[in-house]
Amino acid sequence: MPIAKTIDTDSALPDNAGHTRTILARRLADIICLPSSRISPVERHMSGDLLVGILAQSPLELRKRCARRVAPLIDAAPGLLRFLIRDDIEVARQVLEDSDALSDYQLVETARSTTLEHRLIIAQRRGLNELVCEALLAPGEPEVTAKVLKNRSAQLSQNGLERALDLSREYPSLCAALLKRDELRPAQGMTLFWWAEPKERAQVLTRFAVGREIMQDIAGDIFSMMAEDDWQDPLVRKAMQFIERRQRNRAAIDKSPYNSLENAVDSALETGMDAELAEEIAYLSGIKPVTGARILSDHGGEPIAVLCKATGLKRDYMLKLWRALKRPTGAPDTPDPALARTIRCFDGLSSNKAQTVLRYWNWAFNAEMHTTNATEIGPNVDLEITTPNSAAALV
Fold first, then answer.
1. What does each C-alpha distance from 65 to 18, 101, 207, 291 come to in angstroms?
2. Nearest Cα to 286, choosing from 233, 234, 361?
3. Which residues contact 201 (CB under 8 A, 6 or more apart)?
4. Does the structure show a pLDDT above 60 at 271?
5. Which of 125, 120, 300, 86 shows the shortest CA–CA distance to 200?
6. Is this model's pTM higher than 0.85 or not?
7. CA-CA distance, 103 to 125, in Å (whole number)?
8. Domain spans, the chain
9. What percentage of the chain reaches a pLDDT higher than 90?
10. Residue 112 and residue 134: Cα distance in Å, rounded?
11. Considering only Cβ atoms within 10 Å of each terminal Cβ, which end of the chain, N or C, has fewer?
C-alpha cells in the first residue's frame, strides 16, 4: 500500500498554521524547481527532504499541487519523487503519468509495493524495460497484464511472457494481445492455441505454422549418417523426427491390425470411437496417445484438421473422423460452425506446415523437446526451463 498518508493535524494548530505550512511547502517547491545553474544537487535534495516531512502530514490537495509542480522536472529530488509516486493514487498519478525523472528502480519498487491503480498507470508509460514489466506482471492482475501487452514500447522478457501466458489460460481475452507481441515464441503460441478463441487460433496457425524446407534441405544427408549409426544418438534422433517429411509411424502401421490409418478411421466410424482405437490412431499418426487424446477431445475441431492434414488423410476421411467422434455436422448446405472452421483450417494448411504444428504439440504434451539436464553438460551450466516443458505444464 502507499506509504504516504494524510495525517491532518490542522485542528491542533493555530488558525494561520495551515496557511503558513502551505506557503512553506510552495517555497520549498520553488527551490526544488530552480535550474541546475542556480542550485546545487545537495541543496535540491535537502529541500526535497524538508518538503517530504511537511507533505507527509499535509492535506491531500497540497500534496496534489506539489506533485503537479514536480512532475515536469528532469532532476527532481529522488526522495521526493519516491514519496509522491507511493502516495494515494490522486497524488501519484500526476508524477507517474508525466515525469521523465523516474528511474527503473523507482518504477519497480512502486509496482511491487503499491496498488492496482498505480500499476495500471505505470503499465501505460512509454519505454518500460523488462524488469519493470516483470514487476507489473508478477501479481497476475488481468487488467495490468492487458495494458502491458498492449503497450507496444514495453519490452517483455520470456519470464514476463510466461506469466502472461499462464494468466491467459484463466482470462482468454489476453490471447489477442499476446499474439501481437513480437517476443512470443512458437512453442508459446502453440500452447496458447488450446484455450484461444477461433479467431486467435487462426492467427496462431497463420503465424507459427511454417514449413521446414530449409531444415530438410540442410539436414538431408544426416538421415543416412544416423542410419549408419543405427539411430543411437537420442538427441539427434528427436531433432530429426521434427525435421523429416514423413509423419505416419511405419513401425506402428506394420504392427497394427488395421494396416493403415485410413482403415482405423473407417473402423472408428463403423464401430464407434473408444479409448483403445483412439490410442491406435495416435500411434499410427506418429504421435503419443496423450497428444492424440487432447486433439480428439478438443472442443473446437481445428486440431483434428491439423492431424488429418499432417498425416495425409483426405478431406473425406477427416469428415469420417468427425462423425466417428459424434460431432455435430449440421445441414449439407449449412454445416455446423465448428465443422466449417475445421474444414477451412484443413483447406488452408499444407501438409508440411500442419506437421510442424503437430510435432510441436507432441513435444509440448510429452515434455520431450529437451531432456538433457545440467549434469549431462556440466555442473556449472545454468539451464533455463525449456519452453516446451513449460508449455506442457500449462496445458
1. 15, 18, 49, 61
2. 361
3. 193, 300, 302
4. yes
5. 300
6. no
7. 12
8. 1-102, 125-184, 215-394
9. 54
10. 10
11. N
- DSSP secondary structure string for all residues of 122-158: HTTSTT--HHHHHHHHTT--HHHHHHHHH-TT----H
- Between CA 298 and CA 194 the distance in angstroms is 8
Grid coordinates representing 292 are: 492424440
Cell match 498518508: residue?
Answer: 5
Number of H helices, E strands in the chain: 26, 0
Res 319 pLDDT > 90:
yes
State the average pLDDT over residues 332-350: 92
**How confident is the model over 142-180, as pLDDT tens digits?**
999 999 999 999 999 999 999 999 999 999 999 999 999
CA distance 201 to 199: 5
Residue that wins the pLDDT comparison between 308 and 60:
308
pLDDT at 363: 80
Q: For residue 166, how many other CB atoms are within 10 A of its CB?
A: 15
Whole-number mean pLDDT of the chain? 84
- H-helix or E-strand spanning residue 255: helix 250-255
Q: Angle at the Cα of 64 (from 3 to 81), degrees rounded to 5?
A: 50
In the block, residue with C-alpha cell 486433439: 295
Residue 279, pLDDT > 90, answer yes
Q: What is the pLDDT of residues 201-240, one digit of tens each?
A: 999 999 998 887 777 777 777 777 777 777 777 777 777 7
Nearest to 369 by CA among 185, 226, 196, 211: 185
DSSP state letter for 58: S
Residue 335, SS3 per DSSP: strand
| Phi, psi torsion values for 335, nearest 5 degrees | -65, 160
Q: Check if the beta carbon of residue 319 is closer than 8 Å to that of residue 303.
A: no
Largest CA distance in the chain: 98
Distance CA 60, CA 70 (A): 15
Helix 315-324 to helix 337-348 angle (10° resolution) is 150
In whole angstroms, how far apart are CA 176 and each of 127, 161, 192, 195, 199? 21, 13, 10, 11, 9
Among the listed residues 92, 152, 100, the one whose alpha carbon sits nearest the alpha carbon of residue 119: 92
